[in-house]
Amino acid sequence: MQTRSSTRASRRDSTRRNIAESKAKASSPSQRVPPANQAAPAPVQRTPQQWAKLNPRTQHYEFGGPVGAFAMVTLLPLLVLLFAFGCDSSGYDPLTRGYRFLSDVASLQFDVGMLWSLITSWKPMALFGYAIFVAQLVTFSISLPGEEVEGTQLRDGSKLTYRLNGLSVFQTSMTMIIMTGKNMGLAFPIWVADNFGHLAVATLLVAYLVSISVFVSSFYGQKLLALGGNTGNKLYDFTIGRELNPRIQAFDIKYFTELRPGLIGWFLLNICMALKQYSTLERVTNSMVLVVLFQGFYILDALWNEASILSTMDITTDGFGFMLAFGNFCWVPMMYSLQARYLSDFPLDLSYWMMAIVIGLEVGGYYIFRSANGQKDTFRQKPDDPRNKDLKFITTQSGSRLLISGWWGKARHINYLGDWMMSVAWCMTCGFSSIIPYFYCIYFAVLLIHRERRDDDKCRAKYGKDWDRYCEKVPYRIIPGIY
């Protein structure tokens, strides 16, 4: 899910270019980047004709058009609820349970009173707790210090300012949660684990609320709209995102959503599941340790490299709508914590040979992912670096240089291979008794392939014949020799 966001793969593909640019500008008082907690400069006033030129109607659909949008706002939330309420210590068979439930409803074995009782059994405390969690993240994101960085130039000529304090927000949030619950022992993490389904409903409600708010707001005032979310079809634009960068003064809602609630919520859920397992076994299995460490490192790495998101498609091109809000408020924490949740219900200790395979996949995947991105980073930002002397490239008519050797000569998105290898390692910690924990790596493969195809279309439109020439030099998309 394009949570961020929705995908984790794209978020770290870029470089920390914006930090270097901001530091250079900060050397001149006249070019110093204003603090992000100050009110944003007054927007340039334009005529309706000028805004119409800046915000042209979207002429083509993506993600299946209105039908795909309808599926996103209905079926994906149902899938989250299916996994949330259909998986527990008695078994992980959400699809079977969902089918039985729908069959009972269709055969009228559930009357209206029974269905209403299922709705009213939801615990509002879950919404209260999640709202406090999100409000805390918002407060810390606004108030904690951090490096002020300018994003890429938008098509109206402006550059937005962002505050890089993701790690500080993470650390402060975890400290506050620990201090708040220190006298409760394991009561808090056990409550979170036992009420996972109720929390899933809460994340859905927040995602819908945020999505509706930014969509309605996009029709008021002079707003820069996303080129892909201005079709005029209300459902599609609501789902894809109509406004490009919705803000409340200097607080950027999309940037906050991309890196804060999803990632930090995912980490917190993993810790709660590990403590739930400890409360049952009085120890933590080696498989749970690996999951928490691997995914925790992944999350911290994303927050450490948060500047990279500023030049990704999520920030520069895609609008902020239900797809990104749902992906980051709900999908990421609720679905990405599936392995830790499974291991809390079905504890497993891996054999030494299995641990070696899992660790090998994780380390190998991270090495490919990080070294490939590092090579691209050095090539783009430090052309005179000695490490670039043996790299081959082609120059497009627009002046862009496309690598055709090194990691990027093996496949056009070789970094995706490393990211997917890590996802397989996480799933393998759960053993082979159930296919459900492998949902993540299966879904992630589909997501990466779709994103690669989408990126290929945009590059083909941008570079034309140069892109065809590049694809002849680098024929494989993700997996060298295979795909």
TrEMBL record:
<dbReference type="InterPro" id="IPR001171">
    <property type="entry name" value="ERG24_DHCR-like"/>
</dbReference>
<keyword id="KW-0443">Lipid metabolism</keyword>
<keyword id="KW-0812">Transmembrane</keyword>
<keyword id="KW-0756">Sterol biosynthesis</keyword>
<dbReference type="GO" id="GO:0005789">
    <property type="term" value="C:endoplasmic reticulum membrane"/>
</dbReference>
<feature type="transmembrane region" description="Helical">
    <location>
        <begin position="198"/>
        <end position="220"/>
    </location>
</feature>
<keyword id="KW-0752">Steroid biosynthesis</keyword>
<feature type="transmembrane region" description="Helical">
    <location>
        <begin position="420"/>
        <end position="449"/>
    </location>
</feature>
<feature type="compositionally biased region" description="Low complexity">
    <location>
        <begin position="33"/>
        <end position="45"/>
    </location>
</feature>
<keyword id="KW-0521">NADP</keyword>
<dbReference type="Pfam" id="PF01222">
    <property type="entry name" value="ERG4_ERG24"/>
</dbReference>
<keyword id="KW-0444">Lipid biosynthesis</keyword>
<feature type="transmembrane region" description="Helical">
    <location>
        <begin position="319"/>
        <end position="338"/>
    </location>
</feature>
<keyword id="KW-0472">Membrane</keyword>
<feature type="compositionally biased region" description="Basic and acidic residues">
    <location>
        <begin position="10"/>
        <end position="24"/>
    </location>
</feature>
<feature type="transmembrane region" description="Helical">
    <location>
        <begin position="67"/>
        <end position="87"/>
    </location>
</feature>
<feature type="transmembrane region" description="Helical">
    <location>
        <begin position="287"/>
        <end position="307"/>
    </location>
</feature>
<keyword id="KW-1133">Transmembrane helix</keyword>
<keyword id="KW-0560">Oxidoreductase</keyword>
<feature type="transmembrane region" description="Helical">
    <location>
        <begin position="125"/>
        <end position="146"/>
    </location>
</feature>
<feature type="transmembrane region" description="Helical">
    <location>
        <begin position="350"/>
        <end position="369"/>
    </location>
</feature>
<keyword id="KW-0753">Steroid metabolism</keyword>
<protein>
    <recommendedName>
        <fullName>Delta(14)-sterol reductase ERG24</fullName>
        <ecNumber>1.3.1.70</ecNumber>
    </recommendedName>
</protein>
<dbReference type="GO" id="GO:0050613">
    <property type="term" value="F:Delta14-sterol reductase activity"/>
</dbReference>
<feature type="region of interest" description="Disordered">
    <location>
        <begin position="1"/>
        <end position="48"/>
    </location>
</feature>
<comment type="similarity">
    <text>Belongs to the ERG4/ERG24 family.</text>
</comment>
<dbReference type="GO" id="GO:0006696">
    <property type="term" value="P:ergosterol biosynthetic process"/>
</dbReference>
<dbReference type="InterPro" id="IPR018083">
    <property type="entry name" value="Sterol_reductase_CS"/>
</dbReference>
<feature type="transmembrane region" description="Helical">
    <location>
        <begin position="167"/>
        <end position="192"/>
    </location>
</feature>
<keyword id="KW-1207">Sterol metabolism</keyword>
<comment type="pathway">
    <text>Steroid biosynthesis; zymosterol biosynthesis; zymosterol from lanosterol: step 2/6.</text>
</comment>
